[in-house]
Each structure stands twice: as structure tokens, then as C-alpha cells.
Amino acid sequence: AATTQLTVALWPAGTIIGKIETGRNVEAPRSVVGTFVDAATDRSSTDLAAEHAASCTIESRTWRCAVPARRPLHLKLAVDDYAPLYFWDLDVREISDTGINTLARGGSLVGRVVGDANRPIENANVRLDAVTSAHQPAADRQIAGLRTRSDAKGYFHFVGVPSGRYRITSTSKDRGDASGGIVDVADGQDLRLGEPLVHVSLATLEVIISPPMSKEQKRWTVRLRRPGERMSEMVRVAEGRAGADGVWTGATLQPATYLLTILDDQESEVARQEVQVRGGSERVLVTIAAITMR
Question: Is residue 142's pLDDT more than 50?
């Protein structure tokens, strides 16, 4: 007869506690629902698809959730009529205290910021800016941008987000900007970004011009521009004189597509081309056609 083998994994029990803050004259919630996922399985995502139910109670604004101990966990705490609370990479001991947890109404958006080799970026400035049009009601067009910062593990959480369409971006010192594109947040929705915001290292661009000097033995001027917020707008990013060897170097550039122009000593344009800067070090060779020489 066939036999069935059942394997049961056991972990030490741990308890996560915290105190709910809802503001003055607001009744405390009577129930909370907790779910958790093993953070060690995937530290690059905010996805809690493989979540497990935690046994949670609340009394006198203090909540408790029973979870496995001695392993990193992501915990989501859902409270009726409020945006959920997230706790990332909790190092659960016998009792782990999360302190005071402030609830807010409205939509919720969570995500993560990473850099090279998928390493978390702490203290990145993450922004939600409303995407508006002239056809929207005036009240909707006046939604102010929301700001938050990533924690030590790269996670961020917006709470109390008004319903609407938003552009999500992130900036971090000495790194290129990151964009999560456009997101739609509904009233009371719990939205999680499937992919992290990725910052790449700032780039260095080396331009080598041939011939290295003009016919009058003058140095070339290098100008670097990129598209602005308006379709027809070009923003000057860098400008400088090339050396006598025809080499110009621009450092700390955001990865992007730039318009590179070469000017003579009379400020006349003698060459232009688009340059794709991806990160790290890029080198571009620009040849000045003989017909443009004075």
C-alpha cells in the first residue's frame, strides 16, 4: 500500500507588538489583520503574494501578532478604514516592539529603492507628483506632491494618498534619478510596486574631437543639453572648452540621451549628435567636417 509522508517545519514562536495612534477623539480600532512573508526568500520585492496569516489581537490600542521567530519577516497590518501598516525585514525575537504606529486614511503605495547589484538605498527621496490636465476639476489639479524617504532596507511607504494618477520618481545623492512611471491610486487602495526603483551610478562622458583645434588654432566649446519638461525645451546640462588635445570630460551625468554640440570660437555650431549615456564611463568621438573649417 502507498504511504504518504508529511513533513512539518517548526520554528520558535515570536510576538510583534505596537501601539496604534489614530488622533484625538477618534475611536481605536477593534480588530487588526496581520499577514507575513519570509523576507529571506526575496529581498528585492514588496510582493507579499506568498503571505501567511498571523494571529493578531488588539486591546487598549496595543496590538500583538504571533509569528515565527529568529528569521526576517515582512509584516502587513490591515485595519478597517485605514491604510495598512508595513514592517519590512523585521528581526523577530521573543518579543519585538515596533513602537507607536500612526494610522492614516486614504490610499497606500509601497515600494523599494535599490542601486547597483540590487543593493538597497537608504534615505532616497521618493516623490509622488499628481499627473493633471486642464480637463480635470480644479480641486484635483491642486493635489500637492507627496514626499517620503526610503529606510535602511530601501523600502518606502506612502499613506493617506488621495485618489488620482501619479508619477513616481526617486533621487539619491551621487546617483542617477529613478522612475517608476505612472501609477493610479484609488481611494482606500493598497498598491504595491512590483518592481523596485533602480538608481544607477552617475556617468562620466569623454568627448574626443578631431581635429583637436580649429583652423585658427582655437579650442572647441562643448555643449551638452537634454530635453526638459516641455516638448520643445532643451536644458543645458554642461558646457566647457576642450583641451588643446581636443578632449573634454563631463562628470556626474545622469544616465539619459543628450544632445552634444561643438561650437567654434565665434559660437557657431560645427557639429551635433545625440549621445546615449548609460552609466559608468562613456567615450564619444566627434569628427569636424573639413567644410565647416574657417
Answer: no
